[in-house]
Amino acid sequence: MHRPRRFRRRGVVALGAAVLITSGSVAVLPPAAAADTPRRIVSGWLPYWTMPNALAAATGNGDLWATASPFWYQATGATTVLGHPGAGDPAVIDALRAQGIKVLPTVTETLNASAMAALLGSPSQRAAHVQTLVDLVNGLGVDGIDLDYESMNFGGTSAEKAAVRTGFVTLVGELATALHGQGSTLSVTIGARTSASDPNWAVFDYPGIGAAADYVRIMAYDYHYSGGPPGPIAPLPWVKQVVGYAVTAIPAGRIQIGVPLYGYDWRCGNDACTSKAAGTTATSLTYQQVEALRVAEGASRIWSSTDAAARFGYTDDLGNKHVVWYNDYQSTQAKMSLIGSYKLAGLVFWAVGFEDTRQWAPLRGYATQRARTISISATSAVTYGSTVTVTGTVRDAAGIPVSGHKVILQRRWQGGSTWTDVASGSSSSTGAVSLSYRPSSSSVFRLTSPATWTFEAATSPERNTAVRWKVTASASDTTPRPGSTVTISGKVGPNRAGTTVERQKYSNGAWVTVARTTVNSTGGYTFKAWAGSRAGTMRYRMKALGTDYNATGYSPTVTLTVG
Predict the structure, then answer these.
(1) Quick check: helix, strand or coil at residue 382?
(2) How many of the other CB atoms lie within 10 Å of CB of 532?
(3) What is the DSSP letter of 334?
(4) Cα–Cα distance between 196 and 180 in angstroms, integer?
(5) Does the pLDDT at position 261 exceed 70?
(6) Tens digits of per-residue pLDDT, 112-151?
(7) Pairing relation of β-strands 255-260 and 215-219?
(8) 126 and 164 in contact (C-beta within 8 Å)?
(9) SS3 511
(10) Domains detected in the chain
């Protein structure tokens, strides 16, 4: 059964020499320029007790990082914030910001539901707490702050927890206003819930917090925790449930989904290792410790594709069976795809420096969009009323066809500059796409494909398609007598006022214009043609003159047999 506890609380060593934080103690540091690519999809907490390793992991992959939170501070009251050893180290701040990483130090709290309800319910205490946190940000010269208030979920009465729920939203809103007023960022870390009625972490009002915070970090781990039965720490189906609910309550672009980089070693309570030994608690291990143990015990890694988690079993020197569930690079890979699927802000790791370092390469590959190209082919000219079929092929930068990508046919008038979407479809298994449109005027076409998580946006070259006038023509009498007059009439499409129509006669091997008119309000025209004084054959055609909108068009030949 999932219990709303987390590895961090149990993994944190005791506070060293506490340092009372006061404003103005650290100079403001200039921000570093951010890298353009890959996209910064990674954030994480840097434990103070392993800071050198955590810092090296973050800065060594700085192009992937959006925010980093040194795990430095602990609030013990409205106006007191204590620092863990090394808190506020300017060398750490400098190193992170030199990589373009925003520094948002984490502040936890020691106040349970009862104490926090009292603080949050007092406007004066709340204001004092907001000011203390703002002073901390300004004193360090960092980019903002991460609130990781978990103790307030425990202890107290149900009424006090309800007061914490509403009061914390008020605090987050007031703190966000204060920080945003000076250009600073607010991150809020919350427990994982799968629905609005989930009893776990009920002090966290998802919509209220998500409306104010820049980032909402969801601790999607410890589904199986050290005090409970063995199992995957962050099973993928459960994580998807957490994310699925979160995006209905919080803007997806603000959500960072928590990913564990650790494991638990349980002493088994039965042969199947589905329960823990009575009175025992699992030991928390970093990935490096897990792997060292696995190798030492000669155990084989077992991968659960359903859970996106690894495990192995072993027997200790006393004959006790153990099972270790942990998360490695493949676990991280399985969760990174949630970013693109749900359009999340990214992943946030607990804890940096604990990871399987093989995760960084696939993360970088996932975060870096690949280039695409789109070829295009279109008919150079059609008659009004005809359909233009535009074809193309979507390929990656290596020339390999890309299937299943949305492609949009865009069109603009040849004399204009505004593109309009006129059709859309998806590339086939061979990368091919075929889209159709019936234009009324001469057009320029192009194919575009929007950016996806994996690929950059792509646009084909442009292709011109002239749309000729459609001209009809008929004679009132195709076998007139000599000396009579014949009426030749028809229509020009599309109907555009003022369109000029010429009547041409075939003479001595060439077409010669013999009369001219303009179309009427319905697009029609009329000519009077003399049949001549003697028997013979006369051939006419009607020519609609080309304009900026339509190319020159001709009617079929009208033949008069005079006799």
Answers:
(1) strand
(2) 15
(3) H
(4) 28
(5) yes
(6) 999 999 999 999 999 999 999 999 999 999 999 999 999 9
(7) parallel
(8) no
(9) strand
(10) 40-257+328-367 (3.20.20.80), 372-468 (2.60.40.10), 470-562 (2.60.40.10)
